[in-house]
Amino acid sequence: MENERTNNVRTFPVAQESIPLALNAGVVANIPTTVVGTAQIECANALTLYEQWDAPTVIISDGAYGLSLFPGDPATSDELAEWYAPHIAAWSRYALPETSLWFWGTEVGWASVHPVLKLHGWEYRALHVWDKGIGHIAGNVNSKTIRGFPVVTEVCAQYVRDVRMTNAEGQAVPMKQWLREEWQRAGLPLSKTNDACGVKNAATRKYFTQCHLWYFPPTEMMERLVAYANEHGRADGRPYFSLDGVQPVTGAQWTRMRSKWNHMHGITNVWSEPAVRGAERLKDEQAKAAHANQKSLRLIERIITASSDAGDVVWEPFGGLCPAAVASLRTGRRCFSAESIETFYNRASVRLAKEETLFAETASR
Ligand SMILES: C[S@@+](CC[C@H](N)C(=O)[O-])C[C@H]1O[C@@H](n2cnc3c(N)ncnc32)[C@H](O)[C@@H]1O
User: What is the pTM of this model?
Assistant: First the structure.
């Protein structure tokens, strides 16, 4: 990809400065594609599409469960690591330092895939439990045959990028190590980081410690550190704290060097939300659930809003009925979804078109 950095930061694609709202519809010929507003769904294997999609701020993965839930879903979780591996490799290739990954599955499914995610530079943040409540099993439990407590949950694990920076020796090092090495390379004593930030000892204690209490320097503090090092540091080593070896990092660039987070008060990692029912549950011609795995729009909207801003890109590689496309439309994000099975793609496509009608009606009132 053109927008990959090749200098200081390990080659992550860089977010484009001005991203057009029009998506890359029809980039790959002969792929059925639905575009509604800023969301697009393609009927194809996601592996063939990643390269065409703009770099994501959010990836929502809701693929195989190891439960034979849809054609291609393995029967057990034993095969899940292999099933996900090529997708995870691609996500890592196209992710930005600001990208969050939300990985849906069962507990054992997620546990099986976690080592692959870690291997590809995804850093575990938290596990969220979707508790569908007792209503989910009402009337469906045979106490004579069941051999455990009924399961009414799915899980959604949150990952961010383990961002590595390239140091003066060309090695990829953790960000906290890079910060300290750059300061030392400037020939400045560590205590001067406090002067640079205008604090008593918080800079050495928070941003330059190498222990687990390390904090990512906020943009304003980073701007001060960068300015100080480049003004007072040894002249022959400049620029200090540079991503490209030419210019010192700017505040705007630094802000995008970690995952986004828009905090919502009152929400924990336990999401009590009934299984999808009523008008939200899409049905087939026999009035049966159109997809066994339909996710709650409220939950999908929640994770998108928490980890991105309006205009950012969301990837939904295993679309099903494409809730992330719908949620992105509702929240002003740009979404790229894939669904390989035509029946599901068609339903998702009609669903997205209905969203457009809803919007048009609301706008004309
Ligand atoms: C667990 S379901 C997703 C359900 C969806 N989150 C919803 O709420 O409707 C996974 C979907 O991914 C699709 N799928 C599996 N592998 C795929 C691939 N490589 N590319 C595109 N879609 C894929 C399956 O056909 C299935 O519909």
Answer: 0.91
Between the alpha carbon of residue 165 and those of residues 6, 118, 175, 305, the distances in Å are 11, 17, 6, 28
Q: Which atom of ligand 1 is nearest to the CA of 73?
A: 15
What does the pLDDT average to over 258-270?
98
Helix (H) or strand (E) holding 93: helix 80-94
In order of 94, 96, 156, 301, 355, the CA distances from 332 in angstroms are 22, 20, 23, 11, 13
For atom 7 of ligand 1, the residue with the nearest CA is 294
334-338 and 313-316 beta bridge pairing: parallel
Q: Virtual CA dihedral for 35, 39, 44, 50, nearest 10 degrees?
A: 130
Nearest to residue 103, comparing CAs of 303, 305, 334?
303
- Can you tell me the distance from the alpha carbon of 352 to that of 261, in angstroms, rounded to the nearest whole number? 27
Query: How far is it, in rounded angstroms, from Cα 316 to Cα 311?
Result: 16
Task: Measure the CA–CA gap between 350 and 345, rounded to whole angstroms.
Answer: 9
Residue 3 has pLDDT above 90, yes or no: no
Is-cis flag, bond preceding 239, omega within 30?
A: yes
- Residue 337 tokens read as 């979804």
Give burial (CB, 10 Å; 0-12/13-18/19+) of 201.
Answer: exposed
Task: State yes or no: pLDDT of 2 exceeds 70.
Answer: no
Least confident of 16-30, 109-123, 224-238, 268-282: 16-30
Does ligand 1 come within 6 angstroms of the Cβ of 62?
yes
Question: CA-to-CA distance for 187 and 222, rounded, in angstroms?
Answer: 18
Q: How far is the CA of 339 from the centre of ligand 1 (A)?
A: 6
Distance CA 256, CA 309 (A): 12
* Cα end-to-end distance, the chain, whole Å: 44
